[in-house]
Amino acid sequence: MKTDKKLFIETYGCQMNFSDSEIVASILSENDFSTVDEASSADLILINTCSVRDKAEQRVWKRLKELRAMKKKNPNLKIGVIGCMAERLKDQLFETEAVVDLVAGPDAYRDLPSLIDAITSGQRAANIQLSIEETYEDVEPVRYDSNGISAFISIMRGCENFCSYCVVPFTRGKERSRNPETILNEAERLFNEGYREITLLGQNVNSYHWEQDGDSMDFPRLLASVAEINPLLRVRFTTSHPKDLSDKLIETISLHPNICRSIHLAVQSGSTSVLEQMNRKYTREWYMNRISAIKALLPDCAISTDIIAGFCGETDKDHQQTLSLMEWVPFDYAFMFKYSVRSGTIAEKKFTDDVPEAVKAERLKEIISLQQKLSLRSNKKDIGKVFEVLVEGVSKKSVHSMMGRNSQNKVVVFESSTSKPGEYTLVKITSCTPATLIGEHVN
Ligand code: SAH
Ligand code: SF4
Ligand code: F3S
Q1: How far apart are alpha carbons 301 and 392 in whole angstroms?
Q2: Domains, the chain, ranges and CATH?
Q3: pTM score, whole prediction
Q4: Residue 52 CA: which ligand 2 atom is closest?
Q5: 3-state SS class at 347
Q6: How much is the pLDDT for 362?
Q7: pLDDT (tens digit, 9 = 90+) per residue, 64-105?
Q8: Could you tell me if the CB of 161 is within 6 A of ligand 2?
Q9: Do 348 and 169 form a contact (C-beta atoms < 8 A)?
Q10: Of all protein residues, whose CA lies closest to atom 1 belonging to ligand 3?
Q11: Is the pLDDT of residue 382 over 80?
Q12: What does the alpha-carbon distance between residue 179 and residue 183 come to, in Å, rounded to a whole number?
Protein backbone atom coordinates (compact mmCIF):
# COMPACT_ATOMS: atom_id res chain seq x y z
CA MET A 1 0.00 0.00 0.00
CA LYS A 2 1.24 3.50 -0.80
CA THR A 3 1.61 5.53 2.41
CA ASP A 4 3.17 8.83 1.54
CA LYS A 5 1.28 11.32 3.71
CA LYS A 6 2.20 11.84 7.34
CA LEU A 7 -0.43 11.89 10.08
CA PHE A 8 0.13 12.94 13.67
CA ILE A 9 -2.68 12.30 16.15
CA GLU A 10 -2.67 13.93 19.56
CA THR A 11 -5.18 12.45 21.98
CA TYR A 12 -6.79 13.94 25.08
CA GLY A 13 -9.45 12.51 27.39
CA CYS A 14 -10.53 9.00 28.24
CA GLN A 15 -9.33 5.61 27.03
CA MET A 16 -12.18 5.51 24.56
CA ASN A 17 -10.65 8.49 22.83
CA PHE A 18 -7.27 6.72 22.67
CA SER A 19 -9.03 3.72 21.19
CA ASP A 20 -10.82 5.99 18.68
CA SER A 21 -7.49 7.48 17.60
CA GLU A 22 -6.40 3.96 16.62
CA ILE A 23 -9.58 3.62 14.57
CA VAL A 24 -8.91 6.97 12.89
CA ALA A 25 -5.33 5.89 12.10
CA SER A 26 -6.74 2.75 10.52
CA ILE A 27 -9.33 4.56 8.41
CA LEU A 28 -6.70 7.01 7.19
CA SER A 29 -4.13 4.30 6.49
CA GLU A 30 -6.49 3.22 3.69
CA ASN A 31 -6.08 6.73 2.41
CA ASP A 32 -2.28 6.79 2.11
CA PHE A 33 -1.60 8.20 5.57
CA SER A 34 0.95 6.71 7.94
CA THR A 35 1.29 7.89 11.53
CA VAL A 36 4.41 9.71 12.70
CA ASP A 37 5.73 10.36 16.21
CA GLU A 38 6.29 14.08 15.85
CA ALA A 39 3.90 16.87 14.99
CA SER A 40 6.68 18.75 13.22
CA SER A 41 6.97 16.19 10.43
CA ALA A 42 3.23 15.83 9.78
CA ASP A 43 1.12 16.89 6.79
CA LEU A 44 -2.02 16.51 8.88
CA ILE A 45 -2.40 16.95 12.64
CA LEU A 46 -5.57 15.65 14.26
CA ILE A 47 -6.34 16.67 17.83
CA ASN A 48 -8.70 14.14 19.41
CA THR A 49 -10.41 16.14 22.13
CA CYS A 50 -12.32 15.77 25.39
CA SER A 51 -15.08 18.00 26.77
CA VAL A 52 -15.69 16.37 30.13
CA ARG A 53 -14.36 19.28 32.18
CA ASP A 54 -13.57 22.89 31.33
CA LYS A 55 -9.88 22.23 32.00
CA ALA A 56 -9.81 19.54 29.29
CA GLU A 57 -11.14 22.04 26.76
CA GLN A 58 -8.81 24.83 27.89
CA ARG A 59 -5.84 22.59 27.22
CA VAL A 60 -6.97 22.12 23.63
CA TRP A 61 -7.56 25.85 23.04
CA LYS A 62 -4.02 26.45 24.28
CA ARG A 63 -2.64 23.74 22.01
CA LEU A 64 -4.42 25.22 18.99
CA LYS A 65 -2.78 28.58 19.69
CA GLU A 66 0.62 26.86 19.71
CA LEU A 67 -0.15 25.27 16.37
CA ARG A 68 -0.60 28.69 14.76
CA ALA A 69 3.18 29.13 14.68
CA MET A 70 3.67 25.71 13.15
CA LYS A 71 1.18 26.48 10.42
CA LYS A 72 2.83 29.79 9.67
CA LYS A 73 6.09 27.95 9.02
CA ASN A 74 4.39 25.30 6.95
CA PRO A 75 1.31 26.67 5.16
CA ASN A 76 0.55 23.24 3.67
CA LEU A 77 0.00 21.76 7.12
CA LYS A 78 -3.65 20.85 7.77
CA ILE A 79 -5.15 20.76 11.24
CA GLY A 80 -8.28 18.94 12.34
CA VAL A 81 -10.15 18.83 15.62
CA ILE A 82 -11.98 15.56 16.24
CA GLY A 83 -13.74 13.91 19.18
CA CYS A 84 -16.02 15.25 21.88
CA MET A 85 -15.05 18.93 21.74
CA ALA A 86 -15.47 18.87 17.98
CA GLU A 87 -18.97 17.53 18.49
CA ARG A 88 -19.83 20.20 21.05
CA LEU A 89 -18.11 23.28 19.67
CA LYS A 90 -17.86 23.00 15.90
CA ASP A 91 -18.89 26.58 15.14
CA GLN A 92 -16.85 28.09 17.92
CA LEU A 93 -13.78 26.16 16.75
CA PHE A 94 -14.07 27.55 13.24
CA GLU A 95 -14.91 31.06 14.44
CA THR A 96 -12.17 31.38 17.05
CA GLU A 97 -9.32 29.45 15.54
CA ALA A 98 -8.24 30.17 11.99
CA VAL A 99 -5.83 27.21 12.16
CA VAL A 100 -8.68 24.70 12.23
CA ASP A 101 -9.32 23.24 8.77
CA LEU A 102 -11.46 20.29 9.73
CA VAL A 103 -13.88 19.25 12.46
CA ALA A 104 -15.21 15.71 12.91
CA GLY A 105 -17.34 14.26 15.71
CA PRO A 106 -16.89 10.76 17.22
CA ASP A 107 -19.31 9.05 14.82
CA ALA A 108 -18.01 10.72 11.65
CA TYR A 109 -14.57 9.14 11.31
CA ARG A 110 -15.46 7.11 8.22
CA ASP A 111 -16.06 10.43 6.52
CA LEU A 112 -12.53 11.70 7.28
CA PRO A 113 -11.09 10.77 3.84
CA SER A 114 -13.68 12.89 2.05
CA LEU A 115 -13.37 15.73 4.57
CA ILE A 116 -9.61 15.66 3.96
CA ASP A 117 -10.17 15.80 0.21
CA ALA A 118 -12.27 18.90 0.74
CA ILE A 119 -9.69 20.69 2.87
CA THR A 120 -6.92 19.81 0.44
CA SER A 121 -8.69 21.99 -2.09
CA GLY A 122 -8.64 24.85 0.36
CA GLN A 123 -12.07 24.67 1.97
CA ARG A 124 -12.98 24.04 5.59
CA ALA A 125 -14.92 20.86 6.23
CA ALA A 126 -16.97 19.40 9.07
CA ASN A 127 -19.11 16.43 9.98
CA ILE A 128 -20.56 16.15 13.48
CA GLN A 129 -23.45 13.87 12.68
CA LEU A 130 -24.07 11.40 15.50
CA SER A 131 -25.22 7.91 14.65
CA ILE A 132 -27.41 5.33 16.36
CA GLU A 133 -25.52 2.38 14.94
CA GLU A 134 -21.91 3.25 14.18
CA THR A 135 -19.52 1.03 16.20
CA TYR A 136 -16.59 0.83 13.72
CA GLU A 137 -16.80 -2.90 14.35
CA ASP A 138 -15.18 -3.84 11.06
CA VAL A 139 -12.29 -1.39 11.42
CA GLU A 140 -9.07 -3.03 12.55
CA PRO A 141 -7.36 -0.43 14.76
CA VAL A 142 -3.79 0.60 13.98
CA ARG A 143 -2.04 0.26 17.36
CA TYR A 144 0.45 2.99 16.52
CA ASP A 145 1.51 3.89 20.05
CA SER A 146 1.39 0.47 21.64
CA ASN A 147 3.76 -1.42 23.92
CA GLY A 148 2.74 -4.60 22.06
CA ILE A 149 1.41 -6.12 25.29
CA SER A 150 -1.68 -4.18 26.39
CA ALA A 151 -4.50 -3.16 24.07
CA PHE A 152 -7.93 -1.60 24.36
CA ILE A 153 -11.04 -2.82 22.57
CA SER A 154 -14.15 -0.64 22.41
CA ILE A 155 -17.18 -2.85 22.93
CA MET A 156 -19.82 -0.15 22.90
CA ARG A 157 -20.24 3.55 22.21
CA GLY A 158 -22.32 6.41 23.58
CA CYS A 159 -24.10 6.76 26.89
CA GLU A 160 -27.70 7.31 27.87
CA ASN A 161 -27.36 7.57 31.62
CA PHE A 162 -27.56 11.35 31.64
CA CYS A 163 -25.82 11.92 34.93
CA SER A 164 -26.83 15.52 35.48
CA TYR A 165 -23.27 16.94 35.44
CA CYS A 166 -22.06 15.03 32.40
CA VAL A 167 -21.59 16.09 28.80
CA VAL A 168 -20.81 12.62 27.40
CA PRO A 169 -24.39 11.68 26.38
CA PHE A 170 -24.41 14.86 24.27
CA THR A 171 -21.00 14.40 22.67
CA ARG A 172 -21.17 10.64 22.13
CA GLY A 173 -24.85 10.09 21.51
CA LYS A 174 -26.95 7.00 21.96
CA GLU A 175 -25.65 3.86 23.58
CA ARG A 176 -24.96 1.02 21.17
CA SER A 177 -23.17 -2.31 21.54
CA ARG A 178 -20.78 -3.85 19.08
CA ASN A 179 -21.24 -7.27 17.49
CA PRO A 180 -19.56 -9.74 19.92
CA GLU A 181 -18.10 -11.83 17.12
CA THR A 182 -16.02 -8.88 15.94
CA ILE A 183 -14.85 -8.24 19.53
CA LEU A 184 -13.79 -11.85 20.02
CA ASN A 185 -12.03 -11.96 16.66
CA GLU A 186 -10.13 -8.80 17.50
CA ALA A 187 -9.14 -10.15 20.93
CA GLU A 188 -7.99 -13.45 19.44
CA ARG A 189 -5.96 -11.68 16.79
CA LEU A 190 -4.28 -9.54 19.45
CA PHE A 191 -3.42 -12.60 21.52
CA ASN A 192 -1.91 -14.31 18.48
CA GLU A 193 0.16 -11.20 17.81
CA GLY A 194 1.64 -11.45 21.33
CA TYR A 195 -0.63 -9.12 23.28
CA ARG A 196 -1.30 -10.37 26.80
CA GLU A 197 -3.73 -7.84 28.25
CA ILE A 198 -6.97 -6.57 26.83
CA THR A 199 -9.18 -3.88 28.34
CA LEU A 200 -12.79 -3.87 27.18
CA LEU A 201 -14.06 -0.31 26.95
CA GLY A 202 -17.39 1.45 27.26
CA GLN A 203 -18.95 4.26 29.30
CA ASN A 204 -21.01 1.64 31.10
CA VAL A 205 -19.89 -1.84 30.09
CA ASN A 206 -22.47 -3.47 32.37
CA SER A 207 -25.23 -2.44 30.02
CA TYR A 208 -23.54 -4.11 27.02
CA HIS A 209 -26.29 -5.98 25.18
CA TRP A 210 -26.34 -7.65 21.79
CA GLU A 211 -29.18 -9.52 20.12
CA GLN A 212 -29.30 -11.31 16.82
CA ASP A 213 -31.51 -14.09 15.46
CA GLY A 214 -33.01 -14.78 18.88
CA ASP A 215 -29.58 -15.09 20.48
CA SER A 216 -28.41 -12.55 23.01
CA MET A 217 -25.18 -11.66 24.74
CA ASP A 218 -24.73 -9.69 27.94
CA PHE A 219 -21.55 -8.31 29.48
CA PRO A 220 -20.71 -11.21 31.84
CA ARG A 221 -20.95 -13.67 28.95
CA LEU A 222 -18.87 -11.49 26.66
CA LEU A 223 -16.23 -11.05 29.37
CA ALA A 224 -16.10 -14.80 30.00
CA SER A 225 -15.77 -15.50 26.27
CA VAL A 226 -12.82 -13.11 25.95
CA ALA A 227 -11.18 -14.63 29.04
CA GLU A 228 -11.64 -18.12 27.60
CA ILE A 229 -9.57 -17.30 24.51
CA ASN A 230 -6.47 -18.26 26.49
CA PRO A 231 -5.58 -18.42 30.21
CA LEU A 232 -2.45 -16.37 29.41
CA LEU A 233 -4.58 -13.45 28.27
CA ARG A 234 -5.42 -10.97 31.02
CA VAL A 235 -8.76 -9.25 30.68
CA ARG A 236 -9.79 -5.93 32.20
CA PHE A 237 -12.80 -3.72 31.63
CA THR A 238 -13.76 -0.13 32.25
CA THR A 239 -15.99 1.44 33.26
CA SER A 240 -18.85 0.03 35.29
CA HIS A 241 -21.80 2.00 36.60
CA PRO A 242 -22.64 0.98 40.18
CA LYS A 243 -26.37 0.83 39.40
CA ASP A 244 -25.74 -2.02 36.94
CA LEU A 245 -22.97 -3.98 38.66
CA SER A 246 -24.55 -7.42 38.91
CA ASP A 247 -23.78 -10.45 41.07
CA LYS A 248 -23.49 -12.39 37.83
CA LEU A 249 -20.57 -10.17 36.77
CA ILE A 250 -18.79 -10.66 40.10
CA GLU A 251 -19.33 -14.44 39.84
CA THR A 252 -17.97 -14.46 36.29
CA ILE A 253 -14.81 -12.72 37.46
CA SER A 254 -14.40 -15.17 40.36
CA LEU A 255 -14.59 -18.12 37.96
CA HIS A 256 -11.81 -16.80 35.70
CA PRO A 257 -8.38 -16.22 37.28
CA ASN A 258 -7.32 -14.25 34.18
CA ILE A 259 -10.08 -11.64 34.59
CA CYS A 260 -8.19 -9.08 36.62
CA ARG A 261 -8.94 -8.48 40.28
CA SER A 262 -9.51 -4.80 39.79
CA ILE A 263 -12.83 -3.01 39.46
CA HIS A 264 -13.27 0.64 38.67
CA LEU A 265 -16.57 1.75 40.15
CA ALA A 266 -17.10 5.51 40.03
CA VAL A 267 -18.91 6.61 43.19
CA GLN A 268 -18.86 10.40 42.53
CA SER A 269 -20.19 11.20 46.04
CA GLY A 270 -20.80 9.47 49.35
CA SER A 271 -24.03 11.35 49.99
CA THR A 272 -27.35 9.92 48.85
CA SER A 273 -28.90 13.35 48.35
CA VAL A 274 -25.99 14.49 46.15
CA LEU A 275 -26.16 11.21 44.22
CA GLU A 276 -29.84 11.86 43.62
CA GLN A 277 -29.11 15.37 42.40
CA MET A 278 -26.45 13.85 40.11
CA ASN A 279 -29.05 11.42 38.69
CA ARG A 280 -26.76 8.49 39.47
CA LYS A 281 -29.75 6.24 40.30
CA TYR A 282 -28.19 4.60 43.38
CA THR A 283 -27.81 5.46 47.04
CA ARG A 284 -24.82 5.39 49.38
CA GLU A 285 -26.21 2.11 50.79
CA TRP A 286 -26.56 0.54 47.35
CA TYR A 287 -22.96 1.43 46.57
CA MET A 288 -21.82 -0.09 49.87
CA ASN A 289 -23.83 -3.20 49.12
CA ARG A 290 -22.05 -3.59 45.76
CA ILE A 291 -18.66 -3.18 47.43
CA SER A 292 -19.59 -5.85 50.01
CA ALA A 293 -20.68 -8.18 47.21
CA ILE A 294 -17.33 -7.69 45.45
CA LYS A 295 -15.37 -8.31 48.65
CA ALA A 296 -17.35 -11.44 49.50
CA LEU A 297 -16.44 -13.20 46.25
CA LEU A 298 -13.22 -11.43 45.32
CA PRO A 299 -11.38 -10.72 48.57
CA ASP A 300 -8.19 -9.66 46.77
CA CYS A 301 -9.93 -7.30 44.33
CA ALA A 302 -8.65 -3.73 44.09
CA ILE A 303 -11.35 -1.07 43.91
CA SER A 304 -10.82 2.30 42.28
CA THR A 305 -13.20 5.18 41.77
CA ASP A 306 -13.98 8.67 40.47
CA ILE A 307 -15.02 11.44 42.86
CA ILE A 308 -16.44 14.90 42.14
CA ALA A 309 -15.96 17.60 44.79
CA GLY A 310 -18.35 20.53 45.13
CA PHE A 311 -21.32 19.51 43.02
CA CYS A 312 -24.38 21.82 43.09
CA GLY A 313 -25.96 21.89 46.55
CA GLU A 314 -23.19 19.86 48.22
CA THR A 315 -23.01 20.75 51.93
CA ASP A 316 -20.14 20.18 54.28
CA LYS A 317 -22.07 17.23 55.70
CA ASP A 318 -22.35 15.70 52.21
CA HIS A 319 -18.61 16.19 51.77
CA GLN A 320 -17.91 14.46 55.09
CA GLN A 321 -19.99 11.54 53.86
CA THR A 322 -17.77 11.26 50.80
CA LEU A 323 -14.71 11.16 53.05
CA SER A 324 -16.24 8.55 55.34
CA LEU A 325 -17.25 6.35 52.40
CA MET A 326 -13.72 6.57 51.00
CA GLU A 327 -12.40 5.24 54.32
CA TRP A 328 -15.09 2.58 54.55
CA VAL A 329 -14.36 1.03 51.15
CA PRO A 330 -11.29 1.86 51.29
CA PHE A 331 -10.37 2.77 47.71
CA ASP A 332 -7.01 1.63 46.37
CA TYR A 333 -6.92 4.40 43.79
CA ALA A 334 -9.08 7.35 42.72
CA PHE A 335 -9.47 10.00 40.04
CA MET A 336 -10.63 13.15 41.80
CA PHE A 337 -12.11 16.28 40.25
CA LYS A 338 -13.66 19.62 41.09
CA TYR A 339 -17.15 19.99 39.66
CA SER A 340 -17.06 21.87 36.39
CA VAL A 341 -20.31 23.16 34.84
CA ARG A 342 -20.87 21.89 31.31
CA SER A 343 -23.31 23.74 29.11
CA GLY A 344 -26.29 21.79 27.89
CA THR A 345 -26.26 19.38 30.82
CA ILE A 346 -29.18 18.93 33.19
CA ALA A 347 -27.19 20.45 36.07
CA GLU A 348 -26.40 23.55 34.04
CA LYS A 349 -30.05 24.01 33.16
CA LYS A 350 -31.66 23.16 36.48
CA PHE A 351 -29.23 23.75 39.35
CA THR A 352 -27.01 26.52 40.61
CA ASP A 353 -23.26 25.99 40.76
CA ASP A 354 -23.41 27.26 44.32
CA VAL A 355 -20.32 25.82 46.02
CA PRO A 356 -17.74 28.63 46.00
CA GLU A 357 -14.54 27.90 44.10
CA ALA A 358 -12.43 28.13 47.28
CA VAL A 359 -14.66 25.59 49.04
CA LYS A 360 -14.52 23.24 46.04
CA ALA A 361 -10.73 23.52 46.08
CA GLU A 362 -10.52 22.89 49.81
CA ARG A 363 -12.80 19.85 49.60
CA LEU A 364 -10.85 18.44 46.67
CA LYS A 365 -7.64 18.92 48.62
CA GLU A 366 -9.06 16.97 51.54
CA ILE A 367 -10.25 14.20 49.24
CA ILE A 368 -6.86 13.95 47.54
CA SER A 369 -4.92 13.90 50.77
CA LEU A 370 -7.18 11.19 52.23
CA GLN A 371 -6.80 9.12 49.07
CA GLN A 372 -3.02 9.43 49.22
CA LYS A 373 -3.15 7.98 52.73
CA LEU A 374 -5.48 5.18 51.61
CA SER A 375 -3.34 4.34 48.56
CA LEU A 376 -0.20 4.19 50.69
CA ARG A 377 -1.96 2.03 53.27
CA SER A 378 -3.20 -0.30 50.53
CA ASN A 379 0.30 -0.61 49.07
CA LYS A 380 1.89 -1.19 52.48
CA LYS A 381 -0.47 -4.12 53.00
CA ASP A 382 1.10 -5.74 49.94
CA ILE A 383 4.62 -5.77 51.39
CA GLY A 384 5.70 -9.39 51.82
CA LYS A 385 3.14 -10.71 49.28
CA VAL A 386 4.12 -12.42 46.04
CA PHE A 387 2.28 -11.31 42.88
CA GLU A 388 2.16 -12.57 39.35
CA VAL A 389 3.28 -9.59 37.28
CA LEU A 390 2.80 -9.13 33.55
CA VAL A 391 6.07 -7.53 32.47
CA GLU A 392 5.59 -4.43 30.29
CA GLY A 393 9.16 -3.17 29.89
CA VAL A 394 12.05 -1.36 31.46
CA SER A 395 11.16 0.94 34.35
CA LYS A 396 11.12 4.66 33.58
CA LYS A 397 13.08 5.44 36.73
CA SER A 398 15.96 3.01 36.31
CA VAL A 399 17.21 1.05 33.33
CA HIS A 400 18.23 -1.75 35.71
CA SER A 401 14.63 -2.31 36.77
CA MET A 402 11.67 -3.79 34.96
CA MET A 403 8.06 -2.71 35.37
CA GLY A 404 4.75 -4.42 35.01
CA ARG A 405 1.38 -4.69 36.71
CA ASN A 406 -0.24 -7.18 38.98
CA SER A 407 -3.83 -8.34 38.57
CA GLN A 408 -4.93 -5.48 40.86
CA ASN A 409 -3.55 -3.05 38.26
CA LYS A 410 -0.84 -1.78 40.59
CA VAL A 411 2.45 -0.81 38.99
CA VAL A 412 5.24 -3.10 40.19
CA VAL A 413 8.92 -2.19 39.73
CA PHE A 414 11.50 -4.92 40.28
CA GLU A 415 15.09 -5.89 39.56
CA SER A 416 15.49 -8.71 37.09
CA SER A 417 17.93 -9.61 34.39
CA THR A 418 15.85 -12.45 32.97
CA SER A 419 12.26 -11.13 32.72
CA LYS A 420 11.10 -10.12 29.27
CA PRO A 421 8.18 -7.91 28.20
CA GLY A 422 5.03 -9.97 27.67
CA GLU A 423 6.05 -12.63 30.18
CA TYR A 424 4.51 -13.37 33.55
CA THR A 425 6.86 -13.35 36.48
CA LEU A 426 6.54 -13.71 40.24
CA VAL A 427 7.58 -10.70 42.29
CA LYS A 428 7.85 -10.45 46.05
CA ILE A 429 7.03 -6.96 47.30
CA THR A 430 9.66 -5.45 49.60
CA SER A 431 8.67 -1.75 49.77
CA CYS A 432 6.35 0.81 48.20
CA THR A 433 5.41 4.42 47.49
CA PRO A 434 1.76 5.62 47.30
CA ALA A 435 1.84 4.93 43.53
CA THR A 436 4.19 1.95 43.11
CA LEU A 437 5.04 -1.44 44.57
CA ILE A 438 8.73 -2.27 44.63
CA GLY A 439 9.95 -5.83 44.81
CA GLU A 440 12.25 -8.57 43.70
CA HIS A 441 11.87 -11.30 41.16
CA VAL A 442 11.37 -14.74 42.76
CA ASN A 443 11.66 -18.08 41.01
N1 SAH B 1 -18.90 6.68 32.34
C2 SAH B 1 -18.00 6.83 33.42
C3 SAH B 1 -17.42 8.22 33.58
C4 SAH B 1 -16.82 8.87 32.40
S5 SAH B 1 -16.34 10.53 32.66
C6 SAH B 1 -18.74 6.47 34.70
O7 SAH B 1 -19.88 6.86 34.88
O8 SAH B 1 -18.14 5.81 35.51
C9 SAH B 1 -15.07 10.32 33.87
C10 SAH B 1 -15.29 11.05 35.14
O11 SAH B 1 -15.25 12.44 34.94
C12 SAH B 1 -16.63 10.84 35.82
O13 SAH B 1 -16.72 9.63 36.51
C14 SAH B 1 -16.71 12.02 36.75
O15 SAH B 1 -16.11 11.74 37.98
C16 SAH B 1 -15.92 13.07 36.02
N17 SAH B 1 -16.78 14.13 35.49
C18 SAH B 1 -17.72 14.01 34.54
N19 SAH B 1 -18.33 15.20 34.33
C20 SAH B 1 -17.75 16.07 35.19
C21 SAH B 1 -17.97 17.45 35.49
N22 SAH B 1 -18.89 18.15 34.85
N23 SAH B 1 -17.18 18.03 36.43
C24 SAH B 1 -16.25 17.32 37.08
N25 SAH B 1 -16.01 16.02 36.86
C26 SAH B 1 -16.76 15.39 35.92
FE1 SF4 C 1 -21.33 10.53 32.03
FE2 SF4 C 1 -22.86 9.22 33.69
FE3 SF4 C 1 -22.60 8.35 31.18
FE4 SF4 C 1 -20.57 8.13 32.91
S5 SF4 C 1 -22.55 7.10 33.06
S6 SF4 C 1 -20.49 8.89 30.79
S7 SF4 C 1 -20.79 9.96 34.13
S8 SF4 C 1 -23.56 10.26 31.84
FE1 F3S D 1 -13.90 13.14 27.38
FE2 F3S D 1 -15.45 12.37 25.46
FE3 F3S D 1 -14.14 10.58 26.89
S4 F3S D 1 -15.86 14.01 26.86
S5 F3S D 1 -14.07 11.55 28.87
S6 F3S D 1 -13.26 12.09 25.56
S7 F3S D 1 -16.15 10.35 26.02
Answers
A1: 21
A2: 5-127 (3.40.50.2300), 386-441 (2.40.50.140)
A3: 0.96
A4: 1
A5: helix
A6: 98
A7: 999 999 999 999 999 999 999 999 999 999 999 999 999 999
A8: yes
A9: no
A10: 50
A11: yes
A12: 7
